[in-house]
Amino acid sequence: MADEKGPEPSENASKSFEIICGVIIAVFAAMLAITSLGADKYGGDELIAHNEKNGAYLWYQSKGIKETLVEGQRDTLQALVDAGSIRAEQLPAIQDQVGKLKANAQRYGKEKNEILLGSTAVGPKNWAQDVDGKLGQVVGAKQWENKANALNAAGDTFNYATFFLQLCLVFGAISLVVQRNAVRRAFFWGMNGLGVIGTVYCILAFHQAMQVS
Length: 213
What we know:
Elements: H1 11-82, H2 91-117, H3 119-122, E1 130-131, E2 134-135, H4 141-177, H5 181-212
Antiparallel strand pairs: 1-2
């Protein structure tokens, strides 16, 4: 009775299969290497984005502290003026100081908003914070946060690509080892299917990462 799992492959057919399978394995191995390079590169960018986001939020908080202190001084002086505790000859100077404190508080508020949202988001009319002496150069904390989140999503997609491509190579290796024709063909086509899925995830990951770079 013939083997239900299929006959043993002939020597020539086996060699042809091994050559074709080896070439396909090499292609998917190259794709895995490209995926790993992309994951490392954009993973580093994600780490930078997280660090920049944290730094921007600390900068935002420091401006908030300064704003609170200035508002406290302004309100204290204004309360003294309203209570009539300031002598008449000192009143102009105190009122001038109150005006300066009020202007500083407004400036700190604009700087906070620009640091939070970024120069491009607030527009040239609301630029208040310079970077290296230049206005309009602030990348906001929210912008860094959005970039970090987007790169994190791309990193997840790179992980999917890596998983399917690695599994693809395992299937390819098994297809070269087994002797039963039906079994090796099953692993061969499984390798191709997993490789295609991994490649699609790789392309999608690069697209996601390049959208925010």
